[in-house]
Amino acid sequence: MKAASHQLILRTANGNRSAVPAALLFLPLTVLSVLLFVLWSGSWSGSGNALMASPHERAPETASRFWALAPDTTEAVPADTLPAPPVPALPDTLLPAESTDGRPDSVISPDFGDPFSPAESPAPQAAGAGQNGGLTDAISFTARDSLIIRLDGQRMAELFGNARVSHPAGQLSAGAITLDLENNLAIAEARRLPIDTTDTSALFRRWITRQGPFAAPVDTLSIPTLTREGDEITSRRIMFNFVTEQGKFDVARVGIDQGTLTGTAVKAPTPHVVFIEDAIFSSCDLDHPHYYIRARRMKMVDEEEVFFVGAQLYLLDIPYPVIFPFGYLPSRLQQRRSGLLEPSLVLQDQSTRGLGIENVGWFQYFNDYLTGSIRTNVYTSGTFFADGTANYALRGSYSGSVRLGYSRERGLESTDPDFSRTINRRLEINHQQTINPFANLSANINLRTADYFRRNSYDISERAETSTSSRASFNFRHPEGLYTFGVSMQQSQNFATNQVQFQGPNANYSFRRFNPFERRRSGGDQRWYDTLSLSYGGQFSSRFNFTPLRDGQGEPISDINWFEALFSPSKFREATGEIGHVRYGLTQRAELTSQLTTSEFLNVTARGRLNEFWYPDTVRKTFNPETNQVEDRIEQGFAAARTFNTSLSFNTAIFGISEARIGSFERFRHTMRPSVTFTYQPDFSSDFWGYFREVETDTLGNTRRYSIFERGVLGGPGAGEQRAISFSLANVLETKQVRRDSLGERSERNLRLVDNLNASLSYNFAAEQFRLSELNLTFSSNILQNIRINAGASFNFYAQDSLGIAINEYIWENSGRVARLTRYNINASTTVSGGGGARGGPSIRPGPMYYPRFYDAFDQTMFRGIDPGFNQEPVPDFRVPWSASLRFTYSWRFVNFNNQVRSAVLNADNIMIQLTDGWRIRTSLGYDFIQRDLTPSRFGVDRNLHCWSMSFEWNPFGDFKFFLFSLRVNDSQMRSLFQALPGFDRLERRNSPIGRR
To answer: Which residues form the signal peptide (predicted)?
Structure first.
């Protein structure tokens, strides 16, 4: 509303705004109001004054006092002191009565219609640019029931029925709103309802807000809500100034990130600061919360910080017997800040640690890209543990972490017979970096001592680890794909044998395959050399193997570790007894391929491969008659070896289609892909090539041939000529499943019965013995719904001697068998679930009606009478959602008649049973049928208590038996507070080989 121009801004039917002189609008409104008043006063005696009153009784201001933290900022704005400009006389624009042609009056309609109709009229707007702090932005307001504007003296507007007032300073919605356009105020108050003494939650809310348990409740549909910058404040009564953006609230609720704040009186001097008197904070979203903090006064700043004075914790309405004089609650927990970690007091169940304090440390927030933490455990026995972590990340570029761990363990007394001192260390580095779209760097370094996890971890998988591995790599790909290049390093360690293998730096490169004789123009017959293609690549590798010597008890004879031996060849020889140290070499490979025929029936491909090996040294062997052993000697000097082989392969595809129908399966297609390959490779162990030597093995003059490149990290030339033919056959079986619904609609689905059934076999014509290889079979299928089956087997065609060792005789020569089984395995896995119904799983389907064999439809004596109470009581839903992952593995391998290795294990992982909405059972089970023993298993029970959660976990098997019980608040902020209070820090119990609370 502009005080200077006396114009009212209205929104037309097409959404445009128009400025109408106030005199033109006030005159017809005044005439019509008087006319209606006279007509209605004759029918409704004494109701004239009530017509213009609000349907909701306006109660006086009830919040009579606010504490002095902030002054009252809702004083009325001084009235406009400027004289109003003269209003120009305008001609009457209303049509005469005789020109209306019987049309209804457009100002007042005799039929108001349904006041609660969903359709809303266009929202009028009031705007002003008054002086002395007047409105400078437009106010828009809507109401579904009625709108009353008073212009006699004070400019007031009253909105009823889903009223809403919008302004850039905020949006106010309520059942009824009063606008004081003179003072720029919006006032909204909830409507009162009759008292319901049976609603205990409502009585509680009125009690905690000090309204009195039997104060008249309010209509929840008319409760005012103020929204500013996405934040909502709900209150019983709101008074808000759109110019100063200040407000008063009576019995208000403010929503924050981690809960709600409720108070009897609230002031908002600025959009970022809120003062609350007699405040209640809780992260429980119930109207009657399970727990809350009640404070005499609270102050909230930017919804990030909550300060309180005179606070007390209530649990199930029971006050905690400690009053906090002042305090601070960070409500926005996703904003990380530096601070102390939460320590805990523990008592170990072993005599090696004693009483201690765990998780004593500090979290440091440097910036959005770097954070770090360090935590320590200290025990009375002198045992000490420290763990430091640094995390860094830059979006779109790199991310990673560095972790260092150290533990020193001691017994309680140095005079103890079992006293020992053990030191364990750990280094873990993870790094992922995208340098550009064609280059990336990754690293995963895990270095630790053997007992680190066993002494310091609660995780079963970590405690069961007997080895560790690390890897770092860099890869680059040419933008046009011309070549690729990569560098990597690897390290692996076996704690059971203390064997360590370190590889690196390794480098590999390859160039894109190209066709040197490719035609520039298409057309004409294709020649064999048109498909000739060439590929080239290479690899450089270095390797360090550390296998320490052991005594008769299996213990290493030296205290030298692999890291010391890596940088000292003398220590390496002392610890391992080997003469070599770090080995490295380079290999190059080139392949020439040509597609000789490309007909639709047969493909013929010829290949030629060339390999070259470069090494800095070779091996020489000599026989020592004094020790009767063959000794190795390293011959320094560059050496190269070259090998080659050729192959010719034939492959095709054969399709077989059957129109047979079995049940719902119609038509079957069998696809066979046979392949035959001829391979030739000369015998590189002959003297012609110079890659092999002879050495005596005993005093009798027996000799054997060896390769001088047998220590090569990338291999070397092989012994024996190859003139082999290889056969392979791949099979796929498919079908079409056809189903019809009750209406006869046909639905089809293609289904693979056999995904893969492969067989492979080879025969080497140049071999002196065992020319025929084993027959290898592999099978995979998903024919059973949700069950994946994989199987494999190997068959040998040679007979055995009395010890079970294969001899160079075919088995069918002395028996009726064609082959003997040497190995097979089967693996089946599935994920099952059910029991849902309303909770999401499959429901029980009714089966067909069952009738006795000699059923007589006219003889009803076999049936009982109708129960009059049948179906009168609701049937409870006993369906329970559950899910599980099952995996069964069985393997068998023949070594000899006295040694046959078998394994049969059934694992049931991630078993979950949702008994009710609040109770859940979870477990992981495993059983070894060969050992007849349970594998490490876990059992757990979870209980959802709305804003609380209770869990119990138990592992009764294996070497790591423990149980863990915890009862905690779901909100992490409140949980930290509870754990810091005496009496609430014992809501978690643990029993393990390491410690308990």
So the answer is: none
Query: Are 409 and 481 in a shared domain?
Result: no
> How many domains does the chain contain in total?
2
Is 679 strand, coil or helix? strand
Q: What is the DSSP string of 467-519?
A: EEEEEEEEEEE-TTSSEEEEEEEEEEEETTTTEEEEEEEEEEEEEEEE-TT--
Measured CA to CA, the distance from residue 402 to residue 660 in angstroms comes to 63
Q: Is 98 within the bounds of a domain?
A: no
Clarify whether residues 366 and 449 are in a common domain. Answer: yes
Taking CA atoms, 167 is separated from 27, 171, 726, in Å, by 29, 6, 83
pLDDT digits (tens, 9 = 90+) for 426-469: 999 999 999 998 999 999 999 888 888 877 776 666 777 788 89
Residue 406 lies in a domain: yes
Domain C-terminal end among 405, 432, 456: 456
Say if residue 547 is in the same domain as residue 452: no
Q: Residues 377-388: pLDDT tens digits? A: 888 877 888 999
CA 782 from chain center: how many Å?
28
Q: How far is CA 699 from CA 621, 624, 629, 692, 707, in A?
A: 15, 9, 10, 21, 22
HSE-CB of 961 using CA atoms within 13 angstroms: 5
CB 56 within 8 A of CB 50: no
Q: What is the DSSP letter of 395?
A: T
Say if 388 falls within a structural domain: yes
**Tokens standing for residue 928:** 């070894």
The burial class, CB within 10 Å (0-12 / 13-18 / 19+), for 61 is: exposed
User: For the range 185-188, what are the long-range contacts, defined as Cβ-Cβ under 8 Å and sequence gap of 24 or more?
Assistant: 185/74, 185/76, 185/239, 185/240, 185/241, 185/242, 186/238, 186/239, 186/240, 186/242, 187/237, 187/238, 187/239, 187/240, 188/163, 188/224, 188/237, 188/238
| Arithmetic mean of pLDDT, 221-241 | 79
Other beta carbons within 10 angstroms of residue 691's beta carbon come to 23
Residue from 975, 955, 974 nearest 964 by CA: 955
**383 and 487 housed in the same domain:** no
Q: Are 381 and 352 in contact (CB under 8 A)?
A: yes
Q: What is the span of the domain harbouring residue 373?
A: 362-456
Task: List, in order, residues 6 or more apart from 99 with CB less than 8 Å away.
Answer: none
CB atoms within 10 A of CB 372: 17
Same-domain check for residues 501 and 530: yes
Does residue 775 have a pLDDT over 90?
yes
How much of the chain is helix, strand and coil, in % rounded to 5? 10, 50, 40
Cα 542–chain centre separation:
39
Q: Position of tokens 């128009």? A: 18
Q: Does 564 lie in the same domain as 477? A: yes
Q: Is 299 helix (H, G, I), strand (E, B) or coil?
A: strand
Residues near 524 by beta carbon (within 8 Å), at least 6 away in sequence:
none
- Residue count of the chain: 997
Of 372, 431, 429, the C-alpha closest to 403 is: 429
Q: Which two tokens stand for residue 830?
A: 């599935």
pLDDT digits (tens, 9 = 90+) for 839-893: 444 444 444 555 555 556 556 555 555 555 555 555 555 567 888 888 999 999 9
- Residue ranges of alpha helices (H) inside 709-795 are none
Cα dihedral angle (62, 68, 74, 77), rounded to 10 degrees? 130
Cβ(229)–Cβ(255) below 8 Å: no
Question: Burial level of 65, CB count in 10 A (0-12/13-18/19+)?
Answer: exposed
Tokens of 795: 């068959």
Query: What is the Cα–Cα distance from 13 to 224, expressed in whole angstroms?
Result: 29
Indicate if 499 and 434 belong to the same structural domain: no
Q: What gap in Å lies between CA 135 and CA 123, rounded to an integer?
A: 18
Answer with the one of 578, 598, 618 that is the final residue of a domain.
Answer: 598
* Token pair belonging to 590: 């080139």
